[in-house]
Amino acid sequence: MGMNMKTKLRNYHAVCWDEPIIYELDRNGERAIIVPEVDKKIIESVGDGISSIPKSMRRKNLPQLPALSQPQVLRHYLHLSQENLGVDLNIDIGQGTCTMKYSPKINEQFANSEKITEMHPYQDESTSQGLLEIMYKTEQLFKEISGLDRFSLHPGGGAHGIYTISSIIQAYHKSRGEEGKRNEIITTIFSHPADAAAPRVKGYKIIIIYPDENGCPDIEALKKVVSEHTAALLITNPEDTGIYNSKIAEFTKIVHNFGGLCGYDQANANGLLGITRAKEANFDLSFFNLHKTFSSPHGCGGPGSGIVGVTNKLAKFLPVPVVSYDKGNNKYFLDYNSSDSIGKVKDFYGVIPVILKAYAWTMSLGAEGLREVSNVAVLNNNYTMKKILELRGVSMAFPEHKHRIEQVRYSWEKLAKETGINTENIQRRIFDFGTHYWTSHEPWLIPDPFTIEPSESYSKDDIDEFIAILGQIVKEAYEDPKKLKNAPYKSSVHHIDHDVFDDPSKWAITWRAYKKKYNGYFQPK
Amino acid sequence: MYKIGLIVNPIAGMGGRVGLKGTDGREILQKAKSLGAISLSPKRTSAALEPLSVIQGKLKLMTCPGDMGENEMISCGFVSDIINGIKSKETTFADTQKAARIIRDRGVDLLLFAGGDGTARDIYIAIGTTLPVIGIPTGVKIHSAVFASSPSKAGELSLLYLQKKIHQLREAEVMDIDEQAFRNGIIKARLFGYLKIPYERRHIQGGKLGSSPSEEIIHKAIAEDIVESMDNDFFYIIGPGTTTRAIMQRLGLGYTLLGVDVVYKKEVIGLDLGESELLKLINRGKAKLIITPIGGQGYIFGRGNQPLSPQVIRKVKRDNIIIIATYNKIVSLKGAPLLVDTGDLSLDRELNGYMQIVTNYHERTAYRVKF
Amino acid sequence: MNLKKTVYPYIPNSEPQVQKEMLKEIGANSINELFSDIPEKLLLHKKMNLPKPFLSEYELKRHIESILSKNLTCKENISFLGAGCWQHYVPAVVDEVIHRSEFLTAYAGEPYEDHGRFQAGFEYASMMGDMLEMNVVSIPTYDWSQAASTSLRMSYRITGRDEVIVSKTINPNRLLVIKNYCNPNVNVVMLDFDPNSGLVDMNDLEKKISNKTAGVYVENPSYLGSIESNGAKLSEIIHKAGALFLVGVDPSSLGVLTPPINYGADIVCGDLQPLGIHMNYGGGVAGFIATRDEKEFVSEYPSRLFGIAPTENSEWGFGDVMWERTSFANRESSKEFVGTAAALWGIAAGVYLAVMGPEGMQELGKGIIQRSLYAQKEIAKIKGVKVPVLQSSNYCEFVVDFNNSGKTIKEINKTLLKKGIFGGKDLSKDFPQFGQSALYCVTEIHSKEDIDRLVFALKEVF
């Protein structure tokens, strides 16, 4: 009969190929592909081509790339892919803040169509109406989803979205002659690290607000620091604790009263679609991660997309071009008509395949479907929370918030005190069960943290299985902590000595550097 | 081979359990014993040694006879060299100081000591910053920042330092409180000086260590921020500490590490000033006060900066107080507020509320201050 | 209202019975109750006004395909467009690898369960390192423009100087990105080019460089296709002033062009798109940054850098080098910021270089130059058309001058379009000094027949 993963865990082992570095597979002279031959008549006409290059600019030696036949290259990379664990393969709810969800395969088919892959950005607009229509319609969807008035599809990720927002904030204050005076950005300690890092590139001073006793950003602290120097508030809501800041409209009001703008980091939007929006809380700007909330796959860390929305008064600062529609001629076009634009933040018009996938996903769900996404994401999260808190040694920050939105930051503080096992030990042990979890963004105000975000893509049984794995590890922590400390046992690789990565004489970021520094292989320990 | 020294203050912590707030002085100790106090040091020291068992074969240990270390070594199964010339029972502060010097002179990588603020003070008097140390908290009074947050953390930190997973050192405050006054309900903390301890940044994540900017670099960045916005109309009263020291270094000025100095138009106009001298200066013009939390508990007033009296603080005014501290220091408070204890309750009340802390160049945190 | 609740295929727990079970377990009466922290006045009390969804996969496919069918591709036509996004052949193996679920859907796991991602990233950086002969290469950033902007900010941090000099022959859109990224800390000064050769004007460089200069950024080949021949001289002037020499490069050229480090470049950047990534309407770009393996350079990267290290079992293991540089570890005191960017395109570029091998990359570069020379030679035969405009050698792209034709580029390209040809990028706005000129791009995908067809069509235009 079928097995019950809640009572008997899978006997998992990661694929382990002990795969060589591709250079170790090099066999001089092998070819994996033949480059199209140059027509004889061309050669007769122009010669070898190389002699047209100034001598000082000619490459003297062949690049030191490995040479392999095609099946060898493919097998090598398939081995590597098998030594990797994607959302498609595991119950990926341990990677909190990242909104790991199912990326429908049909959307991949769309994105792999030659009708998008073989399109050049400078084609005549009459030949790219299909893509311009997708871009235009995507913007219309997001206007309704956020309540904001205009979007730029350019930014290539969430941090890039925040950078774009910071640029627009600066341009806005400059247009009012207040660029020098408004030099402070206020953010919170539980907002994404980029909310503090990206505005610094724009020269802003950063002021950080800590949570109050209830786990919400401290509104009294905000009142204390807001001033005529405030350029903007950049804030996540819910923060990575999963707690919805119910005073958010007061926050934006306080900042507006002092002439500052309010930017909404909507990386954590998955629990709020169709429930509450940037507009209702009076935000001026916001961004969405299409590669998280809107299902485009994460691709090992991109291509991503962090589209930015603004209210009407800020629309003129958006990067150029935006996509507009000429109703009379029924034509979509790239609109560069903006004298106050911040210019550009990215080459061309945005990460088109990601935008297309997000459009298709949204169109497969509609208003009710998006609401169902959030309903289930929040249902799953609260169910998971209930189950996790039943485990020994676990607690959560600010327990007085009975319900959370789409994720929760938990703590192993008690377990660590009682067993000496910390969150990183657990992280390394969970690999042995065919899944993974991520600790938390720095700084760790909550001791031994972990953040779980069970998006709408996981079934009750999936969640139960994940919790059974945690339960098994907790049991081991109390019964056999030594064993736990030496994990992983069933991973693709064993324990890695991380010390070399901080030592300039030992780190090796390329194979060339490795060969130079080690003159052979690492000495086995 | 990793070489470690260990000094245990066997009587540290005995006073606390029987409500005596410390064991400085023979009489108090006798009283503690008569009240049935037992020493916490052996158990806590053993807890600190436990994490080191993984490198037992590579450890060369050096400790004092009997109660001052040997007993704990034996109970943990460690073999160690026992230094000569120290009593094994009924030891005093003189034994602690003497042992520290002997161990330093015989050469170790790290000195572990178990005790409280009084013990830290003795270690400081004996060896200063000539050797990295880690304090195992076993005493009643733990105001000094040289102690790990728990005995086992002290052991883990030692292990990381010995294995060179932590390279950087930082200077941490040695504080002590006048026990006599403490027993009478008055806290008079003094900043005695600094010991060198391994610098553990926030927490240890997956072995990703070592490349973080050193504390010194962050101190420099804070100093840069402060100097950039210095106003020539103001007297700058610079409180004690290594964080504030960086400002004086940035300005190329002389300074006192433990005292209160004053700068005007980027020049020193007084070093190590007392309350009355400060008041005299402030009466001549506007002043700003730059301070950093002293000790491990987040006190900005009332611990180690006595010249900054209630009168001085009132004169400067709350808005002219600039707090500086590394992010690391703030995070180590785990959300607890900064504390004030000026000795003037109504002033403490006025200081209550939110203040900004400069944590890096162009970086501030809005933080709660409580009394 | 529908009586029957929709069960969504992508949402397992949208089934009503299981929702009930879970609510019971939580101790809540309804899902709405879980949102109790959200104040009433902030709730959206209406259904969002979105188009009716396509619930079946088939209907969705019909919908998307009907929109996409309005596009005309570079495959259905012959395209001579480049200018920052180039049509090269993408080997089937590249697509096969990056479409694998394990790579496509992974994210930010640890080096244990995501060993393959780290190794593939390390190998990409290694092979790029060999193309560039540099020992440090970053995990990809958004695009070349971001890579160039970051290179400039790195030079600002390394030298402690706050002015950078940027050549006017770089991609004009890139300049917009750079200007926004440098604002407000770093001042951007423009460097003239020699109108005859299209190469850097050395006199102007000597005039503008000073002890304030942090870095000088030049692209080679330039946006206009010219190959800079004075690299060593440039390097001498720049280094004498104590500044850093930053070079942007099309990596597809490096099978035949010498790596910039050989003429003194300190930081090299560029785009990976030519290396096995489809054009995707400009959405297939990914930037790289490379330097020597020196601590003062490595510590200034904002990007992730993967290093190799042994495991306790003497297997290959990987991890992040100098993690504390990044905004993940250090928030506001980090070097710029890092986040999701273009990692999968980096894996694609790695597979591409492995497939091409050393000889493949050399043949690629050589074939592109030959085809491009042939195209220039044939176009030059057309009366009223001037090519080459710039008296310097070029790679892949070249400027064609149509001023004597009496027609605008817009008009010419319209006519070409009718013949199934996408003519070169119109330069009349960005480089008005060339009047009605266009930037043509020829790569290995162009056959002799394709080029001949262009020439034939151009002849018919006049």
What does this structure look like?
The complex is a heterotrimer of chains A (525), B (371) and C (462). Chain A has 525 residues and is an alpha/beta fold. In chain A, 34% of the residues lie in helices and 10% in strands. Chain A folds into four domains: 10-37 and 65-84, no CATH class; 110-364, Aspartate Aminotransferase, domain 2 (3-Layer(aba) Sandwich), CATH 3.40.640.10; 376-485, Aspartate Aminotransferase, domain 1 (Alpha-Beta Complex), CATH 3.90.1150; 495-525, no CATH class. Chain A has helices at 40-46, 70-82, 105-111, 114-117, 129-146, 158-175, 194-201, 219-225, 248-257, 352-388, 413-419, 423-430, 460-479, 481-485, 511-518; strands at 150-152, 184-188, 205-209, 230-236, 261-265, 285-289, 306-310, 322-326, 331-335, 395-396, 408-411, 449-452. In chain A, the strands form three sheets. In chain A, strands 1-7-6-5-4-2-3 form a seven-stranded mixed sheet, sandwiched between helices. A three-stranded antiparallel sheet of chain A has the order 10-11-12, with helices on one face. In chain A, helix 10 (352-388) packs across helix 13. Chain A is globular and about 80 Å long. With 371 residues, chain B is an alpha/beta fold. Helices cover 33% and strands 24% of the residues of chain B. Chain B has 14 helices and 16 strands. Chain B is globular and about 65 Å long. Chain C is an alpha/beta fold. Chain C is built from 14 helices and 14 strands. In chain C, helix 3 (92-98) runs antiparallel to helix 12 and helix 12 (343-380) packs across helix 14. The mean pLDDT of chain C is 95. The chains are: A alpha/beta (525), B alpha/beta (371), C alpha/beta (462). Chains in contact: A-B, A-C, B-C. Strand 3 of chain A pairs parallel with strand 16 (363-370) of chain B, so a sheet runs across the interface.
